[in-house]
């Protein structure tokens, strides 16, 4: 994709971009910081930039705490901190912006207390497009005096004057533009009763499956699960026939299948990133896939989860048969 961009093969680059977003989301997440950095170096990849920003809004630490953060292009940083729905405290944005700005000026002394007026001017010039996007009037007095005050020279003089006035009294009139508070998503459950996304697995199971999808060595917590699990088919609600499966799930990508063995605590399942496609005739067919997996989940008397990935014969990993529901090789759910 990046090579296609380099050679100005826009149509090919857009095609690959769409393919990655629709079918390789787990791979993009695994290399998220690097993809984000490279994506914003190419104006052609607008959809990839939007996809990255939507992830960053909910989980900003994936970018801000990455090794690639200080090498982000300015355009990428501006696009992040300009969002009204970024889920992070405002003072943290300030600290990350300062960190990024300092990294762009390696000649600056390591201790800002030793900086000259010219040093602060260099940082101010570097951050001229970022500083107006910080919500200074949403910070606490402690944050202003403990963390912003040291760099007051990079702020517009009238802005700094207004910040101090507002800290002294919320009723003080000011001339500076006050940006609205960022919209922080509620961390509490809604009071209304909603249908659970699954009657077989829990939110903790979903987080574990998400970790396997992203090939993480450590598991996501329930709160940090980056995936939304949407119920497509429930046997007790829609029935268990093959026709129902094909009607509701044919050609759907990134499918998770789970079943509970009757009379036991055993939960079996699997993940198919490419989806099942109903054969046009009565013939059955195998499909190549090396990112799918099957699993057994920890539940009740089952003390440990078991994950089984494709190691041999990936060309037979997914089995499509119009007379059957979802099949992984010879494993039928």
From TrEMBL:
It comes from the Eukaryota. Residues 199-333 form the TLDc domain. Pfam families: BACK, TLD. InterPro entries: BACK, TLDc_dom. This is TLDc domain-containing protein. It comes from Gigaspora rosea.
């Amino acid at each position: 994709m990046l090579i296609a961009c380099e050679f100005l093969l826009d149509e090919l680059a857009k095609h690959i971009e769409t393919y990655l977003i629709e079918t390789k989301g787990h791979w993009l997440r695994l290399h998220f910081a690097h993809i984000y950095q490279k994506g914003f170096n190419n104006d052609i990849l607008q959809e990839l930039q939007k996809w990255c920003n939507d992830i960053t809004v909910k989980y900003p630490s994936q970018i801000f705490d990455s090794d690639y953060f200080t090498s982000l292009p300015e355009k990428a940083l501006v696009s992040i901190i300009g969002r009204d729905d970024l889920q992070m405290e405002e003072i943290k944005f300030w600290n990350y912006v300062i960190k990024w700005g300092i990294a762009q000026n390696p000649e600056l002394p390591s201790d800002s207390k030793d900086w000259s007026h010219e040093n602060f001017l260099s940082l101010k010039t570097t951050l001229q497009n970022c500083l107006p996007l910080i919500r200074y009037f949403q910070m606490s007095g402690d944050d202003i005096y403990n963390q912003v005050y040291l760099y007051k020279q990079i702020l517009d003089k009238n802005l700094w004057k207004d910040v101090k006035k507002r800290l002294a009294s919320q009723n003080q009139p000011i001339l500076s533009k006050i940006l609205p508070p960022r919209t922080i998503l509620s961390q509490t459950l809604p009071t209304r009763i909603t249908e659970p996304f699954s009657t077989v697995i829990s939110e903790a199971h979903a987080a574990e499956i998400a970790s396997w999808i992203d090939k993480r060595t450590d598991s996501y917590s329930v709160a940090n699960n980056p995936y939304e699990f949407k119920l497509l088919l429930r046997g007790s609600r829609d029935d268990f026939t093959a026709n129902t499966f094909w009607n509701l799930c044919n050609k759907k990508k990134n499918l998770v299948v789970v079943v509970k063995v009757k009379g036991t605590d055993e939960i079996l399942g699997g993940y198919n990133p490419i989806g099942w496609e109903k054969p046009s005739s009565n013939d059955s067919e195998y499909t190549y896939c090396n990112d799918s997996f099957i699993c057994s989940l920890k539940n009740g008397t089952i003390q440990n989860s078991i994950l089984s990935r494709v190691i041999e014969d990936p060309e037979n990993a997914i089995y499509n048969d119009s007379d059957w529901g979802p099949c992984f090789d010879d494993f039928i759910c």
